[in-house]
Amino acid sequence: MSDERTTSAYPGARLGLPETGRLSIARFGRRLGGYAIDAALSALISFAFFHYSAVASLVIFALLHVLFIPTIGGSPGHRLVGLRVVKATGGWIGLWRPVVRTVLLLLLFPALIWNVDHRGLHDVFAGTMIIRW
């Protein structure tokens, strides 16, 4: 029986994606940058309208993801760092995938566990992946 880690030459190879450049699997640095932008934007909006509330920040963060992933292909943070969230099998991502992905992302733990293709559990469960755009 073959080990998955030895069958992939690079992250995304099993998915038919290029090793680098446009349409390749997003690496950790860009993902972290997108997350940081979204978290900062959520905190800023929370501060402006709710005099900063941690609950409001989480709700705003979730709304940014749920509203923007199906419409513009990613959250504002994703788009600013050149990433796009896509359905792993191609086609429109739909409405339920961003919801599942976001709920799991808010738990943070699933986002920190990756498979050989650098897809977090939140992406695997939602059937999505983040690619460079």
Automatic annotation (TrEMBL):
| Superkingdom as given in the UniProt entry | Bacteria
Primary location recorded for the protein, binned into one broad class: membrane
Which Pfam families does UniProt cross-reference here? RDD
Q: What is the lineage of its organism?
A: Bacteria, Bacillati, Actinomycetota, Actinomycetes, Micrococcales
Which cellular components does GO assign to this protein? Answer: plasma membrane
Where does this polypeptide localize? Cell membrane
According to the entry, every stretch annotated as the RDD domain falls at 31-127
Topology in the lipid bilayer is annotated as:
Multi-pass membrane protein
This protein is called RDD family protein
- Which chain regions cross the lipid bilayer? 32-50, 56-74, 95-114
Identify the InterPro entries for this entry: Pra-immunoreactive, RDD, UCP021697
- Organism per entry: Microbacterium ginsengisoli
Q: Which UniProt keywords apply?
A: Cell membrane, Membrane, Transmembrane, Transmembrane helix
